[in-house]
Amino acid sequence: MPASRSHLIRPFVALAMVTASTLYALAQQPPTPTRVRGTIESVNGDTLAVKSRSGEDVKLHMAGNMVVLGLTKIALADIKVGSFIGTTTVPGSDGVPKAVEVHVFPENMRGTGEGSRPYDLKPNSSMTNATVAESVVGNDGHTLLVKYKDGEKKVQITPDTPVVTYVPGDKADLKAGAKVIAFLKKLPDGSFETDRVSVGRDGLTPPM
Q: By C-alpha distance, which of 207, 54, 180, 201 is closest to 125?
């Protein structure tokens, strides 16, 4: 190979090696979490300290536009045809997804996150936000047919499945001992910020 050509090729080879090693390093990094579930340890100014369910201490900067929503228990019978719900499901042995939890959205939140996607609550779990099209009552609970813009799904809900709904909340609900789900954004300095927190009312642990 002529020397001049060799000099031209070497920088590209080096660049390719650096790019490959960088991509490999990024692939080895754990994914940045998008939410933390846990118990509030303290609130100090704009800093929310949470002990996650897995035991980590997480400090969150509360954004100025942060939205706080309360979660409260409701009855299974409160899920009606036409309700817009979210539900975490896991595969059922009979082929019908089993609901781990159901949260009913108030009318002003209809359409939130509509669709079905993988979720991180349990292994192989999915989150589906959709409108209830049919509700069939059986001996062991309800089977719902829910429809969303890209499809539909049958979901089985047992009498033991937690069912909750959202209610208005504010920063005053964020106090030590409260159970929360905080949605995260990683800041350039590596710290975390939250602009949306769901907090359980009356000792409720958000089930989603």
A: 207
CATH class of 35-71+166-200: mainly beta
Domain boundaries along the sequence of the chain: 1-30, 35-71+166-200, 76-163
> Taking the CA atoms of the chain, what radius of gyration do you get in angstroms?
23
Residue entry with tokens 């509360």: 62
At 95-137, the pLDDT tens digits run: 899 999 999 999 999 999 999 999 999 999 999 999 999 999 8
Alpha carbon dihedral 119, 104, 73, 55, in 10-degree steps, equals 20
- Model confidence pLDDT, tens digit, residues 137-187: 877 778 999 999 989 999 999 989 999 999 999 999 999 999 999 999 999
